[in-house]
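Side project, low priority. Logging it here so it doesn't get lost.
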Amino acid sequence: MARGGYVWWYVDALSDDGRQGLTIIAFIGSVFSPYYVWDARQDPFAHCAINVVLYGADKRFAMTERNARSLARDATSIAIGPSSLQWDGSVLTIHLDERSAPIPRALRGTVRVRPQAITAQPFTLDSQGLHRWWPMAPSCEVEAAFTAPDLAWRGSGYLDTNDGDGRLEDAFTDWTWCRASMKRGSAILYDVRRKDGSGQNLTLRFDGDGRRREMPAPLAAALPRTSFWRMPRATRSDDGQARVVETFEDTPFYARSLLASTLDGEQVRPVHESLSLGRFRHPAVQFMLPFRMPRRIA
C-alpha cells in the first residue's frame, strides 16, 4: 500500500422493524485517525481499526486504533485486534469484541452479512484514478446477535469497499452518499467534490442479481444542517425534496442520517452520510478525536 493509503470494508444495516441499526467499518490505513495524520512515516499498516456503531435504544460507538502487530489477514479474512471478518464465498461473518469510548463499555457480538449478489466493477472517484470505490453488494440480508449489549435482530443491509493511494483530504473537500433499498434491488447516490474544484455525481441502480440498470439522475435536494455541530447535508431525489427522519451521528466533520425521499419513482428511506474533510483537518477536531478514538499498541 502507498504511503498515506488506505483500504476499508463497510457494512450498514437496519432491522426489519426499523428500531435498530448498525455500521461497521474495518480500516487498514485509518483515514479519519488523528494518529495517522500526525505520523510522518504515513504507514497505513501502523493505523488499523474496526469502527462499530449501534443505533437504537442502546447506542454505542467503538473505534480503537491498533498497530501492525494487531493485524492478521489472508485472502478470505482480516483480524484487527480481537475482532475479525471472514468471507466463505457466500457469507461475511464479523466477530466483534470492542470497547466503546469515551464511556468504556463492552461491545461484543456476531454479524452475518449475506449478499444477494456481487456487482461487476469498482468506480474511480478522482480524475487520476487514485481513489476507488466498489459497491460490492448493494442488497444484503443481515443477522445481528450481540451479547453486549444484549440484542438480536434481522434486517437488510449493504456492503462496499474503498481503497486509495493517498490521503482523502489531499483529493477531496467533501462528499455526500446514500443508499436505498428498492422493491427490486437498490439505488446509490455518491456525490464527491474534489480539491481541484471539479466534482462527480454517481447515480447507480442495481437489481437484486447485481446487474446495473439505468436510472434517471435525481434533482438536488436541500437538507437542514445537523442540530449540534451544524454539519451541512444535501442529497438528490426525483422531485428535489427530501426530509431527515433521524440523525444517527452528528459529529464535527461527519453526519449519518436516515432520510425519506423518492428515487426512481419509489418512496424510499435512504441511509445517508455527509463528510467534510476540511472540517476533519481543523486543529480543534484533531484535538478532540482521541477522546472517541483511543490507540492501543500491541
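Brief comment: Residues 13 and 286 are 29 Å apart (CA to CA).
Revisit when time allows.
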